[in-house]
Amino acid sequence: MTQTAILRFCCFSLLPFLTLNNLHGQAAIRQATFRSDAQMVLVPVTVTDHNAKTITGLRAEDFSVLDNGTPQQIVSFTSEDAPSSIGLVMDVSGSMRSAHRIATGVANAFLGTANPEDEFMLLTVSTEPEATARFSTDIAALKELIESTKPEGMTALIDTVYLGLNRMRKARQPRRAMLIFSDGMDNHSRYSESELMRVALEADAQIYAIIMNTTSGGTISPGVPFRPTLAAKPWDQARQRQGPSMLEKLSDKTGGLHFHVRNESEANDAAMKAGRALRDEYVIGYQAPQTGNIGKWHRVRIKSREPRMNVYARDGYYSR
Predict the structure, then answer these.
(1) Model confidence over 181-213: pLDDT tens digits?
(2) With a cut of 70, which residues of the chain have pLDDT below it?
(3) Is the whole-model pTM more than 0.70?
(4) DSSP string spanning 122-143?
(5) d(CA 287, CA 26)
(6) Domains along the chain?
(7) Helix, strand, coil percent content, the chain, rounded in steps of 5
(8) How far is residue 67's CA from residue 101's CA, in Å, rounded to a whole number?
């Protein structure tokens, strides 16, 4: 078989379909005979227990796949840790001023789970989105950049995530992800939530969100139990909920995880769980149904045949 370039295998990348006899593990996914009449959908899947700890050791027969409600035969299945290209999105706007030290700890905890071949890009959320570092494998330099950030300005969260997803197109590794640490508030973005959601659904990247709980627009101090403010007006409460809800939706629809945290300990624990989830995910492949409609949305559901497990995967994909 002719050796091809390394094929992207994350977030519903569509690859030419191989016959079942040729699909054997990771190597088979990276070698393909190109055909125009059939394609394969590859779905990254994370499985956790009730404590959000990832479950390993599952097999293809432990899962079932539905594409637009129709059961599909799994024709490839891998569970190997592979190098990733990861965008770190740190909210350093004024609303996160008191949580800046926590943000630094989150980044360090997540970097501690990295694959030696991972590459990272740092994006900061403030009045204007800024990519302070292009993709690099230099972890020490990245940590220095994180330490040098200063919290200030307005919050253009949506614009920053939008920028990060577009920069993902230049990533070197086939597996791609984004980790966001923020309270979810946005008061300075030009793009809308719906525009961001469209880009996220089309991007080959899973989004993990660590959401810092806030009160009255300000981040709580480390170690202080979270209590919703009794003084907040109904419209203030709705606005405070809108941002976290957007981050939840981004992670749910892209197959990532989201965590609500109240202090430094919970934030660091969430970062390590997100890192392990990325390392321990499965990739399930099946032949794409032949609909003949380019650009049609396909709703995908991945289920585990084992009880008491939480399965996370993208909602679907657009046929190409």
Answers:
(1) 999 999 999 999 999 999 999 888 999 999 998
(2) 1-38, 133, 214-241
(3) yes
(4) EEEESSS-EEEEEEE--HHHHH
(5) 17
(6) 14-79+281-318 (no CATH), 84-278 (3.40.50.410)
(7) 30, 30, 40
(8) 44
